[in-house]
Amino acid sequence: MTVDLIAVLVAVQAGTPLVMTLDRERALPSGPFALGHRSLQSGLRAWVEQQTHHPLGYVEQLYTFADKDRAGEGGARTISISYLGLTRALSDAESGWCSWYAYFPWEDHRAGPPPLIAAQIAPALSGWAQSAPDPAEQAARRQRVAIAFGLDGQPWNEELALQRYELLYEAALVPERRHVDTAPAFAGLAGLADLADLGRPMIGDHRRILATAIARLRAKIKYRPVVFELLPPTFTLLQLQRCVEGLAGRTLHKQNFRRLMEQQELVEETGATTAEGIGRPAKLFRFRAAVLAERAVAGTKLPLARS
Amino acid sequence: MTVDLIAVLVAVQAGTPLVMTLDRERALPSGPFALGHRSLQSGLRAWVEQQTHHPLGYVEQLYTFADKDRAGEGGARTISISYLGLTRALSDAESGWCSWYAYFPWEDHRAGPPPLIAAQIAPALSGWAQSAPDPAEQAARRQRVAIAFGLDGQPWNEELALQRYELLYEAALVPERRHVDTAPAFAGLAGLADLADLGRPMIGDHRRILATAIARLRAKIKYRPVVFELLPPTFTLLQLQRCVEGLAGRTLHKQNFRRLMEQQELVEETGATTAEGIGRPAKLFRFRAAVLAERAVAGTKLPLARS
DNA sequence: TCTCCCTATGCTCATACTGAGCATATTTAT
DNA sequence: ATAAATATGCTCAGTATGAGCATAGGGAGA
Fold first, then answer.
1. Residue B13 in domain
2. What's chain B's average pLDDT?
């Protein structure tokens, strides 16, 4: 039994979320957990720093899985433990950084829903739904597709990045699946238009891990101040907004976003303003370290009694 | 390298959250992941059903860790993958079910803050904070304690169950830690009153895993309809409320809780009412399966633009 | 039988938060 | 000077939330 450690290392530059890749942008940094490693995290740090020469800051565990596809061969089995890492230091010399939307072009809704969805994904998944054995399963598939991709009047939900990838995988619309079983998943698939541009594939299930990381991060930015790990020490509110927008893949209402930042007291003015660029200079902010300690643990709400 | 699967199996009876235990209530169901297992989950199901004879319903992965303490001996190393399972079928004949508050008496705030906190935990942790090497670390420890246990005007946050256990572990106030290093963590500890009633200990880090499960479940009930896995097919709103209260360890405002249930449309009336018991008969409800499919994926909010 | 007690359920009201848009300020480019 | 671009402030209605009051419908015992 071998145990692999896999890292999704994320940074944001100019409002674009980037992920660190290896092997001509088709793999995530990874390596086996060895006896010399003090802990899972330190093993991960060692591998990432060795392979990418980039220091690892904030790290959280994502998910552990036993790779079905690689199993059974000679009895050996691999357990993969995946981690999400956030970083801000991003020197220009580094290579391997790649926009995560290169792998998931359907996830970027900042300029409206990508035409790719209506043009290719929706018809292909509709065909897959039709190909289900019985009407109940057909309806179930159709509902899953509609909810995941915001079709049939359903709202788009950016947090469903993993479900979307898994649907495409299940329908054999991504090449990762087609390496596993060569036959098309349903009869209509062969007749469909070229699906080559459904994002850049990765080795093994690295793209699934990346989808897991995106989903986790999109959920987390809403209740934990993790964006701060991705931004420089001081920043303007627009930079902060663009960072969140890049991660969420959606545009935000500017004034309401600012109001939210103010009333949550997560940031404070530095007194300085930006000099560069066109337009009125923006105030520079920094995160309030004191609040971070408390807010880092603020939970959600229930209708409590006699508080 | 061995891989262990560990399950926290939770049920609720009469408003009390129960956890399935083995070995005189000191261990969680667990077993090694073997080559014969199709997947991690199916391996877990096999172990739990073999050891407890209880079927496993809803399951989600909690966390994976490499047990530091057991490491290094002869070079062998153990990876533990923990899961949370929710179940409702709870026949009376079964044994091994145990209130989770037996392990974490400081977590039950339904009758107000447990006296245990003010009487024993707060002074002991205060001593631990004082024992820090420098003033900065002392202040940091004091703040961690205040936030975790709701002291010094901080509000109680039920989601911090894991942080609380880890603080007690760090301060060597739980016997699990004292098995590892025998010396008291700080000079004042020896002079403190008997701390024997800081909850029932468990083997290895099983109590830490249970704390992880509690924290996860308390966070999750607020945004995913998972309570439904724990209740019978029909129930009264008070039963539902008592179930949530038991999990959260806090009492809720009755009328507002009902309003919340109604406006979320998660439940619908069956038309029947309860016969038994004193007082006005309560309407029976069931969960709306249709809404489950949609709401199961409803995320939280950002200030979106032009939606 | 009647009253009290208990639980269930309905309603109100002030306050806070959210979505959406309008208005104003301070720059640079032409 | 004027336009364009960005930053920032303010309003307003709709909705959600916290808290409490009031009423309904049952059983138990005087």
1. yes
2. 87
